[in-house]
């Protein structure tokens, strides 16, 4: 353990298994940068498709043990309440449930650790899991896969190891768009696993194409776009214009909202307006680099 534990809690679960849970203070352990990012498309037939083309299948422990579970449950209901036999049969069911959960959790831990180790940024699509689980056909399959748990684990590990974890909007047309040319071919039914782009002719695997689009949603296409986004988002950055144009101190600029010019300043309202307008045009950023 990295440090002396603050507390220890002993837990006995319904399958009569004992666990010791330690609370330990740790420092963030930053992993070395890998300079690569990954987009992940989660699915039912293939658990995860990565933007590098890799496909990862998940174990389906519930599906594989469904018959056994049903048999145990049938035997359980036949027993007398409060009998020893009933408790023995209850324990059998609980142990099987525990085994199913362990297989799933073990897989999800290994996968999330592997991804966090290899990529600086992990991008997932925000799936409407609770909405999908309402669909009874899908509910069992989705719960068996553990999408929600995967997301929680990946997010926690990213935080611990200093990685970036991003969730993109579920309404992004990640499966409609061609990842090569950006052409939107319209909605595709779930059974369409492969398609050819009508615009550029690229042949796509549905899931790999979606994973690439998921990754590209967060990656700025060009350097100019990245700088532009940064400047528009940060008001302090805008004060750079103030310093250059009017020679005002930084503290004065921080308290003043962009666009409102005090009459005492050397910069006229018209100049400020012009400067602010120019900040929306990419060409103006070439000038900005002169002041760096
Ligand atoms: Zn295309």
List the defining traits of the structure above:
Nucleotidyltransferase, domain 5, flat, 292 residues, binds zinc ion, alpha/beta, 2 domains, 5-stranded mixed beta sheet
Structure in words:
By secondary structure, this protein is α/β, with parallel strands linked by helices. It has 2 domains: 30-218, Nucleotidyltransferase, domain 5 (2-Layer Sandwich); 223-291, no CATH class. Helix content is 47%, strand content 13%. It has helices at 61-77, 84-118, 129-133, 136-145, 147-160, 206-218, 223-233, 235-246, 250-255, 269-278, 284-288, and strands at residues 7-12, 18-23, 37-42, 48-50, 55-56, 121-125, 164-168, 194-196, 203-205. It has a 5-stranded mixed β-sheet, with helices on both faces. Strands 1-2 form a two-stranded antiparallel ribbon. The chain has a two-stranded antiparallel sheet with strand order 8-9. The chain is flat and about 70 Å long. Mean pLDDT is 79; it is low at 222-230 and 232-292. Residues 178, 180-181, 183, 197, 199-200, 202 line the site of zinc ion.
